[in-house]
Amino acid sequence: MYPNVRSSDPEVFHSLQGEYERQRDKIELIASENFTSLAVMEAQGSVLTNKYAEGYPGRRYYGGCEWVDVTENLAIDRLKKLFGAEYANVQPHSGSGANMAVYFTYLQHGDTVLGMDLSHGGHLTHGSPVNFSGMFYNFVGYGLDKETGRIDYNVVEDLARQHKPKMITVGASAYSREIDFKAFREIADKVGAFLLADIAHPAGLIAKGRLQSPVPYCDVVTSTTHKTLRGPRGGLIIMGKNYENPFGKVAPKSGRTKLMGELIDSMVMPGIQGGPLMHVIAGKAVAFGECLTDAFDAYTKQVISNAKALCDEMLKMDYQVISGGTDNHLMLIDLRNRNVTGKQAEIALDASGITCNKNAVPYDTQSPLVTSGIRLGAAAMTSRGMMEDDMRHIARLIDRVVTNHGNEDVYKAVKEDVKHFCRKFELYPSLNASADEIGRRVGESVDDALESVSKTVESVVDEVKGIFRKD
C-alpha cells in the first residue's frame, strides 16, 4: 500500500496504514461517511493534483487546461444527467461552500431565512449561530413535531407567513424521513421566497429515484459528493432550469439579463474560491459515472433496505427511534430510556469496534457536547456488501455494548467479534498490507515460486535424459 509514501515518509505512512486498518476492522455507522471505489481514489490522487485551473472550461485564467477541461466537462455532464438538471457546478470544495455560494448569490446581509433547527436535525449552514449562515443572516428555525418526530408542514407554513423569509432552506443531517419538496415549494410561493434544497445526505438515493427529487420544485439544489453519492469529499450546485436572474443583473457589454447559473458560477469563483481542486473534480466525474450504472441503482435500493432492517431491530429491542422509523439511509436513536448519553454511547461503541457519532435529539436535555442520542447510517457498510441480516447482527452488537455500558470486558469481546465479522466483507484487499495479509501473500508467492522451480527442474531433467537417449 502506497509504496512511495512508505519509503519517503514512514511517519505519514504509519498514519495511513493505521487508518486503513481502522476502516477495515471496524463497523462504520457514521451516516455522512462511505467507502469510495478505488477508481475514485486513484483519480483523486492523479496528476491533476499538479494543475491550476482558475475559471471554467473554455474560460480559464491559466494555460495548459485542455485536459482538465475534459475532466470537468465530464463531471458536469454526468451530474446533469444524474439529476435531470440544466445547470451544474462541480467546483465547490464542500457542501458548506456550496451553500455559502448560494446564499451570497440570492441574499443580502441580514435577510431572513427559514431553515431546520440544528438541534432538530438541521445543519450548521442552515442558520446555526456559530456558523457564517447564522452570523450573516436572520435565520428562523423550524423543528420536528414533539409527538411524531416529523416535519409539520402546517407549522412551517405558519412560520413562513409570520416571518416572510427571503429564502427557505430545506434539508437535514439527521432526519430519517422523506422530505416533501413539493409542499415546501407551495409554502415558498405563498410568501414569495426562494427555495434551496440541501440534499447532502440523501443525494445518491434521490438520484436513483428512491426518494422525491427537489430538482423540479426548488430554485437551486446543493449537495456534498461523498455520503450516499459515494464520491470524493466535495460539493456541488445544480438547478433544474437555468433561468434569468430576478435581480436585474445584466452583461456589461450586451445588456443581456444574466442567467442564474452565471451568477452562481461567478460567486463560486472568484467570489468565494480561487482555483478548483481538479484532482477532486476528477474523482467526482468518476463517482458520477458510477452513479449512472445499474449497480449503483441496486446499491441505493440495498442501502434503504439495510437501514430499515437496522432500524426495525433497534425498535424490537425497545430503542427509541426518532419518528419511529426511516425512509432513507439513517436513523436517530434517543438513548434517554437507556440512561446513557450520546457521548457515553459513542465512546463505548468506539471501544467495541463500532463507529458512530453522538447527536442531539429533538428537545434534548443534554448539551451539544454530550447529547442524548446517536446517529446511525447504513450507507458505508452496504458498500462493503452487507445485507439485512448483517444489519440486524450489528443492531444486536450495539445493544450488547449499550446494555453493558462501563463493562470493559464486554467492549473487548465485542471488538474481537466485530473484527472477525468485518473480515468477511473485504475492504480494498489490494491495499491490505497487514502482517497477516503480507504473510499470506508471501506464502502464496513462495509456493508459486517453488512450483515454478520444480517444473523447471523437471523440464531440465527431461531434456538431459533426452540427450543421453540420443547418445
Automatic annotation (TrEMBL):
Transferase found in the keyword field: yes
SUPFAM superfamilies: PLP-dependent transferases
Pathway where this protein functions: Amino-acid biosynthesis; glycine biosynthesis; glycine from L-serine: step 1/1; One-carbon metabolism; tetrahydrofolate interconversion
Broad EC category: transferase
Example of a GO MF term: methyltransferase activity
A Pfam short name: SHMT
GO CC terms of this entry: cytosol
Keyword Ion transport among record annotations: no
EC code: 2.1.2.1
Domain of life: Bacteria
Residues where (6S)-5,6,7,8-tetrahydrofolate binds: L118, G122, H123, L124
Domain Serine hydroxymethyltransferase-like: 6-398
Gene3D superfamilies recorded: Aspartate Aminotransferase, domain 1, Type I PLP-dependent aspartate aminotransferase-like (Major domain)
Cofactor: pyridoxal 5'-phosphate
Name the record gives this protein: Serine hydroxymethyltransferase
Organism: Candidatus Kapaibacterium thiocyanatum
Gene assigned in the entry: glyA
